[in-house]
Amino acid sequence: MKKLVTIMLMLIVVKSAFAQNLKALDDKYGFREGIFEKPKESIYSIVEFEKGSFATPLEILAYGEYRLRDVIYRFYKGQLTYIRIRTTGQVNSQGVLKLLQEEYGPGKKPDKNAEKYWWVGKKVTMSFDQDPETKDAVIILTCNKLQDLERAENKNIKSETLRKLEFKVPESIP
Question: What pTM value is reported for the model?
């Protein structure tokens, strides 16, 4: 009986060591000063460099000791909804992945042959995707609430457009 209790306790400890820490992802609710649902003005010296894409020239392009290529912000109705972080090379990509896994857990890996991971919290979704050839990686964080609102609005716009374009067949042809 003691062996059974000991084994069960060990399994619980091992499971919690590998558990997702999605609460930490939800609690952070963004990246650095980019907090989801906040306006553009909340990010110091942010500038639009492409239609709908923003960055700050003062962004520290490092995460821990690993180099970042860039950090891009996108907004929906004036509120931060999307953050894209890119890395370059194997060392930086795997180093950033390691830090993300230490902070948020191992992530879900849908394809055992690809360096792709997902963390899906109640408020935030994050993905990590490493290119197998260049070894560069893209990390995307999204605000679930605003993404859902944007998808619903886009769906309504598409439905309305289709209704306007509907071809009406006459009831009788003379």
Answer: 0.78
